Amino acid sequence: MGFQLVPVEDNDLLQFKMDMQEAFQKGYEESFGLIEAEILPEKEIDQSLNAQNSFAYKALVDGNMVGGAIVIINPETQHNHLDFLFVKYGIQSKGVGKAMWNQIEKQHPDTKVWETCTPYFEKRNIHFYVNKCGFHIVSYLNHKCPDPDMPDDFIGDHDEGMFVFQKQM
């Protein structure tokens, strides 16, 4: 596999967002069935893309975009956040996600702690972060136990919540 992880360019953004939205939508629908609502609105992607110290990467295999990620780097604390990581729908379980994560770690070697989160129902993501990437579940957020540092709508419409993961480097 001719794998590369490179910065997203302006002319990639539309496809990058569409592929990310499709991956999140299909992941949800595989657990709960078809839904009219948009699981990942573009405004949430844009918030990450426009955040201070945000880096967006696209994963290429043989020159074709097959996934991507958005990370937020805190240069002072090096407590960094993986906002989004996705593999294009239909390409999962081929090592692309792990290759992306390995490259992200290499591109940000000063990181002390990585943090990310995923919805409770995303068994594939939970397996990936814990068993493939070395993260640990550090908290479980829901409407009864929210994180005061997160926006009010972070949990979303589902009471089931989100797992928060950290990886000490």
What can be said about this structure in brief?
With 169 residues, this protein is an alpha+beta fold. Helix content is 30%, strand content 30%.
Would you kindly provide a written description of the structure presented here, covering whatever features stand out?
- This protein has one domain (3-168): Aminopeptidase.
- The radius of gyration is 15 Å and the shape is globular.
- Strands 1-2-3-4-5-7-6 form a seven-stranded mixed β-sheet, sandwiched between helices.
- It contains four helices and seven strands.
- It is of the alpha+beta class.
SSE inventory with pairings:
Elements: E1 3-7, H1 13-32, H2 42-49, E2 54-61, E3 64-72, E4 79-87, H3 96-107, E5 113-119, H4 123-132, E6 136-141, E7 162-168
Parallel strand pairs: 4-5
Antiparallel strand pairs: 1-2, 2-3, 3-4, 5-7, 6-7
What would the keywords be for this entry?
single chain; 169 residues; alpha+beta; Aminopeptidase; seven-stranded mixed beta sheet; 4 helices; globular
